[in-house]
Amino acid sequence: MSCENNLVNTAVKAADAKFGKDITVLNVEELTTLTSYFVIVTGGSQSNVQAICDHIEDKMAEAGAKMLNKEGYANAEWVLLGFEDIIIHIFQAEPREFYKLEHIWKDAINVDIEDLLVK
Asked: Which CATH number belongs to the domain containing residue 107 in this structure?
């Protein structure tokens, strides 16, 4: 079942379209005032992380989302895209494993996004 937030769905589809792996969506709205959702994605290389990032930016802009910040794009080990109620984390595999955001935010609700992903 897709997320009730259409911008989250847009980000997930955009990441999947550029071969993002292990896409996870966490609903953190009950745990922090910082944001409502984390979208976490793994890219296969620096250029793949950047391609995922670029595509998400384009699709989110088309959907009318305003990006508030972007960090880490140059080295693309961990790119953070901040939108109004969504923070998107695009990692290479090693940093994702090291930082383990899913573990840090283990009390968050894991949103089922399987129907958004191309099989």
From this structure: 3.30.460.10
Residues 6+ apart with CB under 8 A from 44: 19, 21, 92, 93
**67: containing domain:** 6-116
**pLDDT tens column, 22-43:** 999 999 999 999 999 999 999 9
What is the pTM assigned to this prediction? 0.95
Residues 6+ apart with CB under 8 A from 57: 67, 70, 81
Domain count along the chain? 1
Is there a domain that residue 88 lies in? yes
